[in-house]
Amino acid sequence: MLDADSGNKASGKDKTTHNDLAFNTDKLAKLENCTDDISQEDPDADGSRVISLPCPPLKPEDSDCCGSGCVPCVFDIYEQDLKIWKQECRKIQQNLRNGEDQIDGCLLSESEYRKFQITEVKQETKNSFRYRLQLPEFSSLGLTIGQHIVIRDISNKSSMSRQYTPVSGVNCVGHFDLLIKLYDLGKMSQCIKKWKVGAHIEVRGPFGSLHYSANKYRKLILLAAGTGIAPMSQIIQGILGNEEDDTDVLCM
Q1: Which of 74, 114, 122, 193 is the 20 to 30 A CA-CA neighbour of 132?
Q2: Residue 183, annotated as binding a ligand
Q3: Is 164 known to sit in a ligand binding site?
Q4: Quick one: fold of 104-242?
Q5: What is the spatial distance between Cα 89 and Cα 105, in angstroms, rounded to a whole number?
């Protein structure tokens, strides 16, 4: 069996190269029109080996939507992830045919998930944890004030995505931090509870239509509750970190 993410063989017994593998070409056609009948294992011509494909996204339930008009909504993210999943399946199959890797060196992409490693997990409150993810030295994540990212977790043969705003400053280099509150009945919370140092988390972005400009307003009043403090923290850090920004800010 081949590891579809790394392109490395999981077993040393099979010395077949990527170019020697035969593929089921009908599978690519299925990706265009449906999802339920796409197997997560792509058998080769003689059925002796399989290629593992990514887990499909888990469709949200109606109760997962808060109904407050979020942009994007959890259902919007699901549709985006479904499209990305199809693209990932096609790319893996195509790259394995050609013996190519799928790395372009960019830190973030709106249409493709990139992996970042957890280097630190710190409990901040009874049910809130700070997760530090590693970036290349002297590199920042590339967000601007007002932008967020989408995190994907893959488990139990399906994937789940949610939006998060890093609480580290947008100019932070070498790492970025996520402050996440875990809920006893939260679906994504059950996945995040398993995150440990050394694990790799999948991220795509940046997203967000809010664009803050220094000194655009004389005074800002920010209203936030619970996890809503994260995007407000990003704005506050941006103002305090800019000596030329004279904006007064009040967070309530």
Answers
A1: 74
A2: no
A3: yes
A4: Elongation Factor Tu (Ef-tu); domain 3 (2.40.30)
A5: 20
